[in-house]
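Closing statement on the zinc ion sub-project.
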Amino acid sequence: MNILRVALDVPLDKHFDYLDGGHTAKVGQRVLVPFGKRQVIGIVMERVSLSDVPDTRLKDIYKVFVDEAPILPVTLKLLKFCADYYQYPLGQALLAILPAKLRAPELAYLPKLTAYVLTAQGREVGLEAIPKRALVQRKLYAALNQPLSTVSLNALTKGWQPAIKAMLQAGWVASQEIAKTPVVAEAPAPSTAPELNTDQQMALQALLADGQQFKVWLLHGITGSGKTEVYMQLLQTVLETPQAQALVLVPEINLTPQLEARFRARFPVLPMVMLHSQMNDSERLHGWMMAQNGDARIVIGTRLSVFTPMPNLAVIVVDEEHDASYKQQDGMRYSARDVAVMRGKMANVPVLLGSATPALETWHNAQIKRYGLLEIKQRAVFGALMPDIRCVDVRQLPPEQALSPTLLTAMQQRLDREEQSLIFINRRGYSPVLLCHACAWVAPCKRCSSRLVVHLRDKRLRCHHCGHEQRPPQQCPLCGNADLRPAGHGTQRLEENLAKHFPHARILRVDRDSMRKKGAVAEMSRQVQAQEVDILVGTQILAKGHDFPHLTLVGVVDTDSALFSPDFRAAEKLFAQLMQVAGRAGRADKAGEVLIQTAFPDHALFQALQTHDYSTFADNLLQERQMAGFPPYCFEALLRAEAQQYDLVAKFLAKAINAVNDIPHQLTVYDPVRARMERLKSMERAQVLVQSSSRQKLQVFLQAWVTLLRALPEANKVRWSVDVDPQEF
Ligand code: ADP
Ligand code: ZN
Ligand code: ZN
């Protein structure tokens, strides 16, 4: 038994055999091995006595990272399941979930971090002892109640080094090496939990009564109904068990700081780690280690953190479970929500999915009682009303006029009352196209089948799909006309319009362009809370999570295109998005108003929105899906392919279909079609859809098919991938 079967980050569906060479590597342990001319990191999957490779050609592993705890068996099991389910090589899947520092051979040694913390003497002298001018020192003093590593200090403030040095010399601060959790010595008093209202109480009781076993629950309640409060009180009880750990998934990093603040205030003594893509490699590694060795009691993170190893996992919460960002769109195309459910099943712990507008798949599961349904029907804060949602008919409005008189009047009222308005438009930039008024030419992207967006301030045209940029042409390349004009509205143009209408208002634009800098979203949030802003103009960045008590009007501009999209999920997504923006209006003691500008005010979607009736809307959509045979009434997989020449793509997909000799009953393999974005980044794209009424049959088919595909000579000439449960087409 001296042969080790090792998983490597290579695009092959197999492991590689090495000789143990006197190391005593355990399953799950990281090893450094020779691979071709390189050294790579691998994970030991198995110890065997026989290999297909002749003994003489087997190589020794270089190194076993003996000091490290092996990857947990449950983590390996979860990854194995995902690799099978999503048709992705296990080695690649496994290495991809590791923090970068555990993957790179040159960084293969775990660094120790230095941390600083106040000494008893430091605590005694108090903040008053530090001069008012010494801003950095004062800031550090306030933060160093618990040990902070150099990485955390970097994140906290610039130029902390001299300040720390001074405090070290004064004996107020001590340094220590940490490889493990900082333990909080003196905890601040926890924020007190409010008493739950009846709906919340019923939800919590149902969750607790079911005990510590696998069950999926859907917590359905509009924004502000107090779902987060239910999560926290659930954790409060679950985490009373010594060592129990909770995993909380959130869709976006922008939302983690607020959630983190609430959880930290509620659970000041429980070690908590954040895991998201804006953390640097060391922070990520430390979070991972703390979770894996059981020190972190709460892990809050985005998509990828669903794989965080947690030996004492006791509960999983997925907030905003319908959110599209839970789906990974490259590499292993997993859905973090679905993986969370599978993980809960393997660990035999409850999984709580929360949303105001659940994914139809989830809603369906609740309707057929596969999931437990918990509903909160009102807003949590006493007296907080549901926003009043109305449509504004814009059929008479000139096309270049983005804002209707009704909306403008409502905004003026807000300005008079010193309240805030938010104008929501899902398009950044100045205007979506540059149009020739003589021949109707619009500026296209050279690399994609899309149009270039006008960014007037930078005098650039930009593709929002591939990032391509150019100067606007002086004249139309088709007809030579020099009258090229931006057509339609984006955030920048709307901002400009608003400034004309309301010259004295303080207007803030919030989109990916204006929020690029780190911390920009937090600063925006602060400005709005402090009432330094009257009008917000922005994209969906604004739709989520922010709590703006003085915001009483939301105007929605230009959403009609989504009503007639070929994407069968478009209505579901639009409803979710509009519910979310509507949720920004009127919290606390001020009733909110939502005005949606549309040319289709009678559309069923708006009717449902006006009555806040998600469930009727969802039930209708489900009926439509059932009749059309769409998910969740069937299961889908997409074979995607792309190459510089369309020829190669067509050939590959034709061969792929030919490779199927008999198509099982209950399964349909469709003809190849072009992707919705036919060209992206100079790649021609097409795809084959596979549908089945049986998930099992689809899985068996895909397994066999992918093996055949890998063997096709054409497979090496295109980039291809399999997307199980695809969300985009
Ligand atoms: P959601 O997660 O559904 O958007 P939150 O949990 O954030 O809702 O609750 C919205 C607001 O109501 C928060 O400020 C929260 O502190 C408050 N809140 C929640 N539940 C209660 C309650 N039972 N009593 C008083 N305030 C509550
Ligand atoms: Zn022209
Ligand atoms: Zn492009």
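Residues 198-376 form a domain with the Rossmann fold fold (CATH 3.40.50.300). With this model delivered, the sub-project is considered complete and its resources will be redirected to Aim 3.
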